[in-house]
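The step that takes the researchers longest sounds almost clerical: writing a folded protein down as plain text. The outcome of that step, for a single protein, is printed below.
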Amino acid sequence: MLTREQKRTLAAEIREQISAVNTLFIMENTGLTVNEVNELRARIREVEGTYRVIKNNIVRMAVEGTSLSELTEHLRGPNAFAFTNGDGIALAKALRDFTKNHPALQFKEAFLEGQVLSAEQAVQVAEMPTRDELLTKLAYLLQSPMRRLVVALNGPIQKLATAMHQIAETKES
């Protein structure tokens, strides 16, 4: 059992960790084995996220007076928290992929860019393309008109070169 001072210290540590996050998922944490939790933590670390199981009272103390204070009404039962200051969609995808094979872990709520989302909305976030995917698509879209322009400008030059080659061949024979 933690003393009040230990709880305050832990709450301050957690407040410091989550004060800079832009994405936080509350997960229903029941029925996972230690090996499954370790596997989940490894997947979350790959996307630069953190996964912690924290008592609800300590979380309430940690988020009191912050933008995350809206989440306190959803803190019932055994919860786990996955959060990141990086790509929230990548974290959501990692959690969704894990929940496909481990139905014991379920989305409860999410905090994304200042908004509280329901479990269904959190799953929808996981369906969105990641930042890297969007940048790749943008680069392709920007490249496509330039490529067509180069091909269009290169067409007459290529035709001229072909015609000169044919003329050279006819003069040789």
